[in-house]
Write a structure and sequence with these properties.
By secondary structure, this protein is α+β, with helices and mostly antiparallel strands. It folds into 2 domains: 41 residues; 64 residues, no CATH class. The protein is built from 5 helices and 3 strands.
Length: 131
């Protein structure tokens, strides 16, 4: 339901009105609940504008590198998600890293934890030296 906020020009009372449709709002003649005046001003508190999405899958290599260079982990995560999706051949670590980037975790932190995990795997899978 659309919510419309108003300020009364007579007494400065601020209030909200709810309408089931924009047509109902257009047909209404709202009045101040405090003083009954119909001289009202609309109050706009927040406007949500969706940013246009980028098609990372169609980008060239240089454009993809510029996304990395930007340092914006959410953009990098979105690029990973679009380019590879949830391809089963990719390791769980890749998908986990993508999710962490999408949440805004720094690229450096994600990379460092992946390197640490890789080092731990190598250390645990290395057979003992024979002497």
């Amino acid at each position: 339901m659309p919510t419309y906020e108003f300020r009364c020009k007579a007494c400065a009372t601020e209030f909200s009105l709810f309408y089931k449709t924009t047509a109902a709002y257009a047909a209404a003649t709202p009045a101040c609940p405090q003083c009954g005046a119909q001289t009202l001003a609309r109050v706009i508190r927040q406007v949500n504008i969706e940013a246009p999405s980028r098609d990372y899958a169609r980008m060239g290599v240089s454009d993809m590198l510029s996304v990395f260079s930007s340092g914006d982990s959410k953009q990098v995560g979105e690029m990973f998600r679009q380019v590879t999706g949830t391809h089963p051949a990719l390791a769980t670590e890749y998908h986990d890293a993508t999710q962490r980037l999408l949440k805004g975790e720094s690229m450096d932190r994600v990379e460092k934890s992946l390197q640490e995990r890789d080092s731990e795997k190598k250390a645990s899978s290395t057979p003992p030296a024979v002497t």
